[in-house]
């Protein structure tokens, strides 16, 4: 938490899904996250079911089985490991262009954050 205080990244605990979604949106935009982010309900049922604290990345197959569970993040994430598993699942999907190829001015693009539960 000390680093968060130094960086000015502090949020009050949200009391409803709207508040949690606002914080998640802020993190997605500020951190430049380019994959879908899901928001757990206020009761944190998904976090509790998957032992996702402080945070983890799960890759779940179409059969519902967990393919990959990372170590706790943010330092436990191994992006290359996730990429390798995704390439196994989707071998025919072309690679995305590097960020340096992106056009300037798209920083204001809207970000959709699907809700896990309604």
Topology:
Blueprint: H1 2-7, H2 17-31, H3 45-50, E1 58-60, E2 66-69, H4 79-89
Antiparallel strand pairs: 1-2
Task: Please characterize this protein's 3D structure.
By secondary structure, the protein is mostly helical. It folds into 2 domains: 1-43, no CATH class; 44-95, no CATH class. It is built from 4 helices and 2 strands; from the N terminus they run αααββα. It has helices at 2-7, 17-31, 45-50, 79-89; strands spanning 58-60, 66-69.
List keywords for this structure.
118 residues; mainly alpha; two-stranded antiparallel sheet; 4 helices; 2 strands
Summarize the structure.
The protein has helices spanning 2-7, 17-31, 45-50, 79-89; strands at residues 58-60, 66-69. By secondary structure, it is mainly α.
Number of helices: 4
Major sheet details: 2 strands, antiparallel
Overall domain count: 2
**Percent in strands:** 5-15%
Order of helices and strands: HHHEEH
Rounded to an integer, what's the Rg over CA atoms?
Answer: 16 Å
Task: Determine the oligomeric state from the structure.
Answer: single chain
Tell me, rounded to a whole number, the average pLDDT.
76
What's the number of extended β-strand segments?
2
Low-confidence stretches: none
Helix content: 25-40%
From the spread of the alpha carbons, the general shape counts as globular
